[in-house]
Each structure stands twice: as structure tokens, then as C-alpha cells.
Amino acid sequence: MLPFHQIFHPTDFSVADQPAFAHAVKLTCLVQGELTMMHVDPTIGRQGFEDFPRIRPLLARWGILPEGSSKEDVLKLGVKIKRVRAVADDATEALLQHITARPTDLLVLSTHQREGLARLAHHAVAEPLARGTHAKTLFVPAGIEGFVSANTGRTNLSRVLIPIAHTPHPQPAIDLAADLANSLGSSDVLFELIHLGKEEDFPKLIKPERSGWSWNTLVAKGDPVEWILAAGADFDVDLIVMMTEGHTSLFDLLRGSTTERVVRGTRCPLLTIPARPDLPVLAP
After folding, report:
1. Which residues, 6+ apart, have CB-to-CB distance to 75 below 8 Å?
2. pTM value?
3. pLDDT per residue over 178-191, tens digit each?
4. I need a surface site. Which of 47, 119, 133, 171 has the fewest CB within 10 A?
5. Given 3.40.50.9100, 3.40.50.620, 3.30.70.20, 3.30.1130.10, which CATH number is that of 159-274?
């Protein structure tokens, strides 16, 4: 059973947002949950919701619903859809206020990967939203299909990369990666564990076993972000799952945390899990 029911997806109505929207809808159907889509506009307060991404045509294209289905047909799937509009100059603040009042289990965010001057010229939403809510977050790079096909609804999760460190303990990432693969019906999966640290510090892990699943471990030294991005590209992974602690130093504030730097460079979806301060650390 996946540990989320309430799913939240901010949308800007753009074509680049479609892959993230497809992932949000697929996961909502998978858990028979509730999907909230929210759009923030600085000037226009429209009353209707006609310009929001359409759920029923998407599910019809995937073969889940027939053409011309009704809202009641969606409800029969066990799925609830909410649409929210807000007029605000600061989209991030408006989104955070909404989630604070109505907490969510999972954020699904489209990311526009920019660095340097291009990043300074654009107001980032995905990273500060994930950091401010402390919720599990699925980042889907704009223009990347990811592990859910927007055209067919089919899933492809055959290679998963999980960065491993002694702190925070990575067991929640292991568990969620396995639960997701199991829920998607992924029968042949290679889980690549990349240990960023000394070999003797490798933490004790429980690795779920299924027929067709395999686990591989690589010990790496050097810059964690460079290793994660290089391993993701070399292994052609479909998903990266990692723990996150947010900003823990002045350097993080200036350059971004390890997770944020991975978000900016990855070419596949990234699923992050906020570290629980009460989670006991197992001895290596």
C-alpha cells in the first residue's frame, strides 16, 4: 500500500506541465485517492474551471473510461478531483498557504530546470514549495515522459536509482521505491543503490525481494550530486528515490541542497522523502 492518498498538483496550464499531470492522475487512480489541482494567476480571477487539464478525456485515451463519460464515472473509480483557483502575485506563497490549511500526502511538481543567470531571472516554485511543505514530492522535469506515458497511461519502471547515506537513514526510500514498483506491477526491476560515503559506513538495509527484482550496490566518493546525476544517466534510470534534509548549512542556502541540485540536473522523475527526525539510525 502506497503511503499517500491526498495528492496535490499545481498547474500553469502549459504543454510542458502535461507529463507531471499524467503522473499525478496515474498515481491518484492507483491509490483511489483525491487529486487537487491548483492554478495561481497574478491578475485574472476566472470563475470557471474549463481551462484546467481535463481528466476524463485523458482516462478515455488510456482506456480506463469510455468516451463521453461523466463525472460520476470518475467517482466510480474511487477517484476524487478538486480544482482550486487563486489570485496572487506570489504563486509559491499562495500554494503554501493552501497546503498549510489543507495538508497533502504527495506533491507532484513540474520542474523547469534552469541554472546560473537563467535561474535568477525566473521565480522558482517547485523547490521552495517542496521545502516549505515537508511532504513527499515527485518532481517531473518538463519535456520528459517519465515512468507514466501521457499518451497511453502505461508505466515503465524497470530501473530505479536510490542514493544511500548513513544519515538520513535511507530505509524509507528503499521501502517507497519497492512499494511503488509493486503497485505499478513492475515485474522486472533493477534497483541501483549508490552509497555516497565510506564502505564501512554502509547502513543496514532491508531490501524487499520479488521474483524478477534485483539489487545492485555501487560505492562512490566525491561530489554526491555529480555521482547521482552521472549514475542516473549511465544506468538510464526511470526514477530516482532519495531522502532529503532540506537546507542544513549556509552553503545549502546559497547553492541549494543536494536534493535541489539533483532536481535541477536530472533527466528523469525524482521522488523525495523528507527525513523524519524521530527515525532511529541503525548501526552500520
Report:
1. none
2. 0.88
3. 999 999 999 999 99
4. 47
5. 3.40.50.620
